[in-house]
Structure formats: C-alpha cells, structure tokens
Amino acid sequence: MLGPVEFADPTGTMRIGGPRLRTLLGLLGLRAPAVVSREALIDGIWDANPPTAAALTLRTYVAHLRRRLTASSLDGLITTRASGYALNVPPEWVDVRRFEERVRLAGTALAAEAIPQAVAHLKAGLRLWRGDVLADCTTGAWARAEATRLRELWHFATEDLLTAQLKLGDYAAVTSELESLVARHPLRERLWELLMLALSQAGRRGEALNAYRRARARLVDELGVEPGPGLRRLEATILADDSRQQQKPAASATRRAQPALPSPLTRLVGRHAELAEVRAQLTQHRLVTLTGVGGCGKTRMAIAVARELAPGFAHGAWFIDLAPVTEHAQVQAVVAAALGISEGPYLGPLEALTENLRSWQCLLVLDNCEHLLDACAALTATLLSSCPALRVLTTSREALGLPGEVTFPVPLLAVPPLGEGGAVPMRLDEVKRYDAVCLLLERSTAQTVRYLTDADAPALAAVCAAVDGLPLALELVATRTEVLTVKEIAARLNEPSLLRVRRYAEHPHHRVLDASIEWSHDLLDMPTQARFRQLAVFAGGFSLAAAEAVWHPQPGERPAVDALSDLVAKSLVVVERQPTGTRYRLLETIRRWAWDRLAECPPERTAARERHAAHVLHEAEQADQGLCGPSMADGLERLAADHDNVRTAMAWYAETPNPLPQLRLAVALARYCQLRGQYRQGQLWIRQALARQHELPAAETVTVGAAWASDAMFSFLVSNYGEAQASAERALEIHRRHDDHAGACRALRLLGSVARERGEYEASLACLQQAAALPCDDFAAAGVLMLSGFTAWLAGDLDQAEQLLDKAYRRYQSSGDSECLASAQIHLAAVAYYRGRNEQARELVDDALTTFSKLEVKEGISWALDLLGLVELRQGKVSSAIGTLRASLDLHLALGDRWRQSSLLDALAQAFVARGEVSRAAELLALAAALRETIGTVVPAIELPAWQATWDAVQERLSEQDLRTARIRGGTATVAGMLAKIS
Length: 983
Description:
The protein is mostly helical. The protein has 46 helices and twelve strands. GO terms for molecular function: DNA binding.
C-alpha cells in the first residue's frame, strides 16, 4: 500500500482492479488480521455517499476480491465474521506494518546509540515505498487521513535517517539529499536545520548561513512567519562558530541531570500502529495526551514513544511519574526535582522551570495526571507558552482540556471475534494473530501454554473477550495459568476472585484490577459514584435515554448528560458510534466491579434493575410497533443493539412476582426474532412466559392470545405443523371470545399458512377468506392478500395468484413496509418464473434480495437465493445455480425451515441431473422425501412437473441396484451431511 495497492507472492505481483476494490483491500490490510466492521468498510469505500444497497454491494466486492486471491492460489485469506471481514495475514505481510516496525526498531537503535543499525532499519523501511501512498484508492476521508499520516511518518523516518547519517559523518551524501528534499518540501523547518548542520559540519559555514536565509525567505513569502526557534538558534550557533556544535550534530546542552526513561521488565506486545500514530502526532503538535481506562497500557505506550523519540531531541526525553503525588501544590516541585532544576533564592519551582526549559529542546512525559488535572494543566500551559522547543506527552484517564491538546484514546488490544453462542471458528494459529492473545501467552509463565492446540482456541478467545482485551486484566489472568489451564480459566470467568490476584507493580493501583478501577472511582463525587454503579445493570451497552431512565434524575439534580460526559471523560465509560446513534458501555471488568458495589446496597440495586427492565420493555414495544411500516430498519437496529439488555430484562422479569411484563416483552420481541431468524430464542421466551399464564388477571387474556399466536408462528417456521395448528387454534379461540378482530385475523392467517404447507390448498384459502371478512386495518388486509396469492401459485393457479399479489404489492407500497414489499416481490417473481418470464423474475428477485440484505432478514435472503438459483438453472448456468441453491439450503438449515429444505433438495437434484451426476440427484430426492415424511408434507403442486422430470431422469439413467443404493444413502443422510458433499 506504500504505492499502488497490490498483492504480491513469490510468483509475482497481482494488481487489484478498480479503486473501490483496492480500497477494500487497503482497509482490510491496514487492520490485518483484525476484523473490520461492515460500517467501517462502507464508510471507507464510499465516504459520505454510500449506495442504497451498500451492504450487498460490499458483499459483492468481497466475493470478487476472494475470487481474485483464489485464482492466485491464495484462497482462505478473507474470512467473514459476525461484525465484518478480516484479512487473515500476519501484520508483517503488510508493507505499512513492516515500515512502521522498521521505524520503531530504528528508534530503539538510536536510543542505544547503535547508529549503523538504525541507518540499516530506516533504509530498509524507506525502500518499501513504491510511490504515492494509496494513490489508486478512492479519495475519501479515510484514504486522505491515512495517506497524510503515512506521509508524515515517511518524513519523520527520512529526517531520522539523515540525522543518523550525519552522526556517521556522511556529510556529502546527506547534503545532496537534503538539497533535493528542501526543494520539494520547503516549509519543513527540520529539513533546513539538517541541511545547515550538514553544511556546517563539512566546513561550509557560509553556505549553511545562506541556507538559513533561503529558508527564511520561503517561510516569510509563503506563510508570513519567521523561522522557528530551532533554526534561529542554529544560525546563532554557526555565527558564533560554536566548536561543540561543529563537532557533533546532536550534541546535548549542559544539563543539570541526565534524562532517564524507565526500563520495563517485560516486552511491549503489539501497538505498532498506535506507536507510529502517537509519534506522528508529536511531530505535528506540542501537547499529546494518552487517555484511556486504567490498565489499558498508557504508561507503557508513553515510555515506548519517548524512547523512540528521545534521540531527536537535543536535550532528550524526561519521564516524571505523578502517581505518588497527592497534593496539587507539589506538582511543580516534583517536576523540577526530576529534571534536576533547583530553585534559586528568588525563584520558585515554576519560575525555575520556565527559566531553564526556555532554551531546551526536549520531550517531557508526565505520567498519571488524572488525580492532579488542574495542577498538571496549569503547569503544562505555562511551560508550553514559555518554552518554544518543548513538547509534552501526558498520560491520564481524563484529558487536560488545554487549547491545542491532541488526545489519543489508547485502544484495548484486539481480541478474536466471537460468533453466535460464543463460537470461535478459528484455529490456534489464527487466534494467536490477535494482540490480546499474544499478551496473554507472553505473560503466562506456565509451561502448559506452550502446548496449546486448536481445541484451546475458543477458550483463549473467550478469556480475552471477557476482559475486553484490557492489558492489565490479561496480565492478571496470565498469572492464573500456573494453576489452571486456559479452558479452566474460561469456565471460571464469572468468578469475581479470578482477577483479584496480586502482581508486582510500582504503584498499588496497578497491582490489582480492583484497585485500578477504585482509583478512578474515588475521583468521582458521591452522586456520580452512585450513577456509575447503577450503570452496571446494563449488559452490552446503553443510550443516553436508557441511562436517564435508570438514573431517574429528580428536578434540580445534575442532568444525566453531564454525569455521563464526566464518566466518559474519566475513561470509566466507553463511547461507541453506531447507526442507531451514540451508545455507551462499561468494559466488562469495570461493569463487574460496579455490580459488586451496587450489590452492597440491595434496595438501590433492585430499583435500578426495575427501571432498567421497564425501559427495555418500553423500547421493545415501541420498536415492535415500527416493525410493520417505514421505520422497520430503525426498529431492527435498536433491538439488535439492545439484545443483551433484552436478555437481562427477561431474566429479571422471570424472577418477579408479576408475570405480565415478561409476557409483554416476549410478545414484543416475537416479530424481531422472526425477521432476524432467531426462531428458537423467540419461542423459548414465549413459552417461558406462557408457563406463568395462570398467574395473570383475566383482563390480560388478549395478551395471552398474542403469545399463543407467536408460539404458533415459531412452530410453523420450523415446520412443527401440529404444534403450530394447536397454538393458532388456541389463539383464535381467545381472540374471538374477546372480539379482538386483529388477533383473530392473525390466527387465521397462521392456520391458513399451516394448511398451505401441508398441501391442503382449499383449506388454506378458506381460512384466509375468513380472515379477509374480518374488519382489520390495511396492513393486515395486505397480508391476507399476499398469503392468498402464495397459496394460489403453489397450487398452480398463476392467474389468480398474480391478481392477488399485485393488489398486495400496491397496498404495501402505500404502507412503506419495505420487508413486506420485498416479500410480495418474491412471490411475484415466483409467478414470473413459473410463467417462463426469467428476466422479470430475476429483476424482482434482485430488488427483493437487496432489501432483505439491507434489513438482514435471513428468511427473505434464503427465499431470494432459492428463486435466483432456479432462474440460473433454467438459463443453463448449472454450476452457478448449484452454488446459489446450496447457499439457500445452508441458510434454511440454520433457520430450521424443513419445508423449504425439501424443495431445495429437489431443485439441487434437478441441477445435478443437468450436470450428469445422477447418483447424487437420487440421493437428494430420497433425502427430500424422508424430510417430507417427517414433517407431514407433500411436493407442492407447482413443483410436481420438475420433480417428476428429475425422477424420470434418475430412473432412466441408473440401474435398479444403483438407484436402490443411492436412495438408501439419501434416505439415511442428514441435510448437514449432504451439504458437505455438494460442491
């Protein structure tokens, strides 16, 4: 990426076509092997103007990139995760990372005065540049920002290289290179400084002074400013013929003490990109503050950055630890003492500092400022305004709040992504590519971690995810490997004592995780402490409105937004930008600590949980109302974001005496669970709530009816038709008894759907006609029309189906419900397909697939792929059709829809006959027949001609013995097992 974006292997270089495809590779490469979210990829590729079907287009780009890599025998490099995609290559495969690593190694070598090694590293790093960085990518904000950062790092490395070469006495080569550089970058004062030094060192003092005049002229003409203090001091030194400056380009001024940086006992793991970014920030800005939660590694990063930058400062880098300081008034004296600056008879510590540092070119590192913010801010502001060559790097859980301050939130270490149910579909070597895992293993001294296998990968990922990749927590967990295996640690993650192990650290708040959190907690006032611990009731995250609901501020109390801002500023709450808006969360380790504090006050905990559950119920019911209309996408996103909170609220309501809130919440979530394919979870919640229906007052019977209808829906979706019919009949009886026409209409639609899939088309239409006769709203009426059209085309009555579906489509257009509109398009596409209108069918399917993909409606996606595969098969694209039908079958298997699975098996059998694999086709037909026998259905009437033709072909081409063998194999197979055989 340090030039045109391309992929190289030992056989040669592969260019990636198209700027958006190259941008995709660049985005994945810069974060490799970490997962890049779909939102980040969409923003990076299209900036602020993504297409309507951005998610689907992104998936197309990923598929195309996979094909390009596979064609070069590089398959398996791009993996799909729950939240996005990852490029499974180690960081050293990416030229940007190799460049950053070379610069880091050079900084270490320079700090150790190993100048030749530093030169070698810098030259190797700079040789990686092949042209303008990311020049052939899209010109969005991401590419511009990344290119700016990398170009600045290139300048930084180039200047370091020239400085090192000057130390080796290579004046002629350096002078020639610098003349070229100042011509191209005339406003970079550091280059002019180096040119003056090179000329002066070579005895060319007149030319050195002329270089100063040239630099001044360019700065005055183009920017209207005089040269900075570095250039002015250098001119004065040359004029005074300072022999010390002539002999050594980076000689230090006389100091009252020698600068020293701490030497950590352990190796810094990862952080290559972060270190490079902080270094680049310090080259552009004079004050940078590393912020973050306690234990995230701010101090280690500050030491590493200072060690790498120290050689570039004439007076070095100085590290002052403020953790032991307890009084604001002590800060100035502590800093002065650390620098070896003594107070005079007429000078206080601040005056002594400003007087001495005014002539210094140095980096000052102030560590652990959060408990002394006012004093640190005042001192830093004074020093920066008085000392022009001074740069300050601070670490604090809260920013200083000064003008010109650049804050760098230190991120947590990358953890392996967990799939549904905590599954980790990764091998051990893949898991080890994540920095959190590397740190855990690095700090583990037990020999057992040296012999881990792929079976340990899920446990490693679970441990790292449980502590959010927090370095301090990982180091504490690592000490447990002396007595527990990684799997045993993973099994005990909920035990509070797991992270209460002590370890050596210089300061008490770094020895135990609880102490680190308590350090931040104690900096809060008492009302904010109470609000902080009440946030522990949230699982996963929360919005400002949710925090307000739990806190329930009274008139006159501090507004919730102010308290939340304070907690964010102190790094106790993390901010997350999501499509639904700004959300917040506590790191899990912090949440557990806050939960323990909340548990110490049972009445407060009970009140907080009640308010939390009530808010979740309110939000769920509000979102559910929007799942049938134009606000569906927003409702789905809101419920998805609060999924963990929903589980927590459901568990709370299950323990409370009143069963009604539990039932209401389960009913409110049913439509969401249906759309997102979470059938088993949705039905489990419904049945747990229904188990308590006898405790409900009679007035709530309508809610019970809605719950039975939801239970019928989930049973129907997984082809349990007997249970579905019984629950729907129960719902119908309740709704009729209470004259609830909307509820009765829904129950009749469900009964009609059950009859349809059993092949009882007349009974299905009879139920739907009863539903149509009820006084229901337009949305319900459109649903009756669509289901009637569905039954009609399955029965083979395409004329009637088209009329009904066209009416339903027009009604859905006026309602604004995009999911139902897409469902109507799918049914119209089926009618078009069976009428032989392939292009019309394809167009309708494509539109529907775009909508379903955007909304992440798994059932809709799988239906669309089913029809798409049939169209491709009819067009003679057999291999493509098999792939599409297989993908649809895979989705239907995950959903549990056995009715569609059987039809897809028949369609695949038809495709394998077309490909000449008749034995496989016979197996597929046998498996479909066995599946239909299990669920009590038949081949749909509309599919019978294709099924018969496939069966006839199988009988004609296979011997009786081969046919019998294939049918036995298929009849005893499973759908999952058959999928594994299909390619």
